[in-house]
Amino acid sequence: MSDVIRLLPDSVANQIAAGEVIQRPASVVKELVENAVDAGATEINIYIKDAGRTLIQVIDNGRGMSETDARLAFERHATSKIRGAEDLFSLTTMGFRGEALPSICAISQVELKTQREEDEIGTRLLINGSKVELQEKCVCSKGSNFMVKNIFYNVPARRKFLKSDAVEQSNIMREFERLALVNHNIRMSIDTGGKVYDLRPGTFKQRIGDIWKNNLNLQLLPLDIDTSMIKITGFISRPEFARRRNALQYLFVNGRHMKHPAFHKAIVSAYDELIASDMQPCYFVRFDVDPNSIDVNIHPTKSEIKFEDEKQIWSLLKASVKGTLGKFSAIPQIDFTSDPMPFSPAKEGDFVKAPALNVDSSYNPFKNPYEVSKVKSEGSNGRNISHAYRPTKIDTSWERLYDSFVNKTQDDTQSMEKEFCDSQNVVVEQDSVEQKELIEEKECLSPLSIQYADKYIVAASKEGLMVIDQYRAHVKILYEKYMSKAMSGLSSSQRLMFPECIELDSTQQLLMEEIEDDMQRLGFILEYEGENKWNVCGLPPLLEKMNPKDIIFQILESLLEQDDDVNTSIMQRVALVMARSSAIRGGQTLNAVEMEHIIAELFMLKDPMYSPTGKSIIKIIGEDKIRTLFQ
User: Of 10, 303, 348, 476, which sits 20 to 30 A from 537 (CA to CA)?
Assistant: First the structure.
């Protein structure tokens, strides 16, 4: 039997590595821009075509490469950033693995033009799926010009799972914002094939204001603390400007963007009792630490970072955020240094007399006006009048009218009572003993379903005990309703009395333009004002009690999520967000009618067992399982 283990070709190994490093067009932008930053560029221009599917071009004015370096840069694990393993613990550059360029050229067609300042002529290199097709001398500007064409052209499965142009474009813009924030001293521009965003070099706060215009920099408080262990700088938002949706939250360490749930929690916990539990503050926080005290070599994307003194930094970060909020009077405080209010005691014998009040003690506003009670009238004729409330002065005309009304009402009431009693006697006589027992048995029966922990509906079925997740069930029901109405064109809208104005950033604006038609079909009424401002004039009827801003931002955020469970059309994802927003939540108490209604509507669907994202809605506990519990 021959040997079965063999080495993979470099082209196949590069495609496998590309699956981790290059996840989407935005990953290409990130890697190329970081290489340009490491090359000392002061100006970086990015050009995008068809959301990166057709072309991603990054031009910089950095140091450039020689003819030999340009060829060697596309080999696996070829890098100029480190020399040995010990350099991994003192990294000062963005890249160091030597995997980005080989991964990019493995799944695309790459053209590179580069020239160093000391060279008279540059180099042009063509690579097609890891195969070098051409290398020649050319005339070009100082720096590097990367053109990545037809991404994933040789990996059709990966290309098929790319999302719509709007979603991929938005992910590119999100990555561009992170890179622009951390490199605020570099002039950066991006052309998305219709819109150009040009950011001047400046301070960190100026860059924040240039990216998010809407006077965001006026809502921020400076954060600045410097210790021997770490230096923390940046900005946090005032509590009154916290957001329920679309909060801007960025963490950077040594010029690198990172995701760190623990540090996020430290910042948010500093706002306890200052903002509502469903609100989130905005923050732009930078950490400067000794490179030896962190490890960035955890994930190929280099977004997960471990800190040597994480607990101490957590406490320091929370304390610094609290200190900033207190320093700038963002926390309500009691001033114990102010003079007390002047108080002069009353003089002896100088008392305030209580005012005299004339109260009619016989008046009772809660007494039933139809309740007949005998009240002795002290009118001129001294008769007894039956009434619940009689005015202080009795008018004889009102008294006569009242007497006639009461007498007639009493006569009618007596006759009706007699007829009712007669009919009841007849019914009782007709009822048999068996009928009485059946009625009593029905009254003692429990409802068809019960609610457990205010989250699950429990009912009996032929297969056993059926447990239904009420939230997932309601989401499924609403999702199918939205989709059926949208596909049939019968979606209705409920106009808002006062339109809600929503301001979007550049990333969200691209998405909104893409999904506007689908949202109109689902019942939204949207009007574009210009300058990334939209008016929400109407909502689908089931969402009329929801906050329009929350709904819109939820939809945009769901489309930007990279790990979306629903790998389908934009309309289906929008319908899913709408269903999740208006569905009953876990913890909401339901009565018997509501539970039976949910069960009935759920089993009218074609597939009631699974939610739109493929999660289980119903679980069956069989009789055998129940029997084993008692053994």
Answer: 476
Q: Which of 26, 29, 47 is nearest to 195 (CA)?
A: 47
| 288-308 burial: b if 16+ Cβ within 10 Å, else e | ebeeeebebeeebebbebebe
* Mean per-residue pLDDT over the chain, rounded: 78
> Does pTM top 0.90 for this prediction?
no
Q: Which pLDDT score is estimated for 147? A: 96
| Residue of 208, 216, 217, 205 whose CA lies nearest to 177 | 208
DSSP state of 401: H
CA nearest to 250, candidates 318, 305, 182: 182
**How far apart are the C-alpha atoms of 405 and 277, rounded to whole Å?**
60
For 290-295, which contacts have Cβ atoms below 8 Å and span 24 or more sequence positions? 291/89, 291/90, 291/91, 291/92, 291/254, 292/89, 292/90, 293/229, 294/253, 294/254, 295/89
Cα 206 to Cα 73, 173, 199, 253, 448: the distances in Å are 35, 18, 10, 19, 63
Tokens of 406: 């009461």
With beta carbons less than 8 A apart as the criterion, state whether 548 and 601 touch. no
Element (H, E) at 199: strand 196-199
Residue 133 burial by CB count (10 A; 0-12/13-18/19+): exposed, middle or buried?
exposed
For the beta sheet containing 525-530, the strands, ordered from the edge strand earlier in sequence to the opposite edge, are 494-503, 533-539, 525-530
Give which of 207, 206, 216, 266 is closest to 237, Cα–Cα.
216
Residues 310/264, Cβ–Cβ less than 8 Å: no
Count of helix runs (H) and strand runs (E) in the chain: 17, 24
Give the DSSP letter of residue 380.
S
Report pLDDT digits (tens) over 398-420: 344 334 444 544 555 455 555 54
**Which DSSP string do the residues of 11-23 spell out, in sequence order?**
HHHHHHHHHHH-S
Q: How many residues does the chain have?
A: 631
Angle, helix 165-182 to helix 25-38, in steps of 10 degrees: 20
pLDDT in tens, 488-520: 777 788 888 888 888 888 888 888 888 888 888
